[in-house]
Design a protein that fits this description.
Strand order of the largest sheet: 3-2-1-4-5
Order of helices and strands: EHEHEHEHEHHH
Largest sheet: 5 strands, parallel
Number of strands: 5
Structural class: alpha/beta
Helix content: 40-55%
Number of helices: 7
Distance between the termini: 63 Å
Length: 172
Amino acid sequence: MITAIYPGTYDPVTNGHVDVISRAARIFDRVVVGVVGNPHHKTPMFEVAERVVQIKEALAGDLPNVEVDVFSELVVDFARRWDAKVIVKGLRVVSDFEWEFQMNQLNRTLAPEIETVYVMASPAVSFVSSSGVKEIASFGGNVEELVPKGVAARLKEMFPNGRGGAPLSDQE
């Protein structure tokens, strides 16, 4: 049985993440979606518990070989905890590759027994990023085609009129 982990902050989970998870679930016997509990490089918009719920709702039981877990240790230690032999990473653009290449080299130094497998984003979601989704939603833009339904509803609840408040014509 080959277990793979798919680590990330998922703040929020996007249709791009769901695409990679679904495709990885067809390749590996078990996929563990690892949600970073307290990322050091950014402060999440959503609490970890809400991110976990969003992922589980997005997958809606369609993938019985996928589990969700929270971690706060090194990715390779999380992989070892699950006896995973593979780290799955999604790639959208060249800049993703540059970052992931560096991370791969560090992870291989720490855990040469764990391979990293890259899944290229499907064309329909290759431009979707969590940060882009948050930016659009914060200005009141429609993100329904970019994220699962529950996430879109939550973002609309958080930013009903965008962060600008009143329309521009009312502010003049």
